[in-house]
Amino acid sequence: MKIKKGDLVKVTAGKDKGREGKVERAWIDKVLVPGVNQYKKHVKPQGEGRPGEIVTLARPLPVGNVALVCPKCKQQTRVGYKFNNEKKVRICRKCKNEI
Ligand SMILES: [Zn+2]
After folding, report:
1. Radius of gyration from C-alpha coordinates of the chain
2. Distances 51 to 40, 46, 54 between C-alpha atoms, Å
3. How far is the CA of 42 from the centre of ligand 1 (A)?
4. What spacing in Å lies between the alpha carbon of 49 and ligand 1's midpoint?
5. CA–CA separation, 76 vs 71, rounded Å?
6. Distance, CA 62 to ligand 1 centroid (Å)?
7. Residue 69: CB atoms within 10 Å
8. Can you tell me whether residue 64 is helix, strand or coil?
9. CATH code of domain 8-92
């Protein structure tokens, strides 16, 4: 998996293109970034004292629509890999630092 929870990403496609945020959850092909890909959900009234409301929620977006922002060089980058003492680590393709 290239993008992990806690990564800073930039949206590269879709209606929130250009926005940045931290990954809250990551799946194999999707990521959830708070404030990105939001939609309004109408919640029905739930009886006495609980009126209906509209809540704003973030929907996961395809991992192909985001690019990792390197914490070291702050550039939008692609992820590379290298082996460090037989452990696979992610590296920034631009500055070659471990991510
Ligand atoms: Zn970098």
Report:
1. 17
2. 16, 6, 10
3. 41
4. 52
5. 10
6. 23
7. 19
8. helix
9. 2.30.30.30
Nearest to 57 by CA among 77, 32, 74: 32
Give the residue extent of every domain in the chain. 8-92
Q: pTM for the complete prediction? A: 0.83
* Residue 2 DSSP SS3: coil
State in Å: Cα 79 to ligand 1 middle. Answer: 9
3-state SS of the chain: helix, strand, coil percent to 5? 5, 45, 50
- What is the CA 20 to chain-centroid distance, rounded? 8
H helices within the chain, ranges in order?
none
* Structure-token pair, residue 27: 């799946």
Q: Return the structure tokens found at 39.
A: 């939609």
Going from the first residue of the chain to its last (99 residues), give the mean pLDDT of each consecutive group of 10, the final group possibly shorter: 92 95 96 95 87 92 96 95 93 95
Among all chains, which residue has been given the structure tokens 């800073």? Answer: 8
Ligand 1 center to 92 CA (angstroms): 5
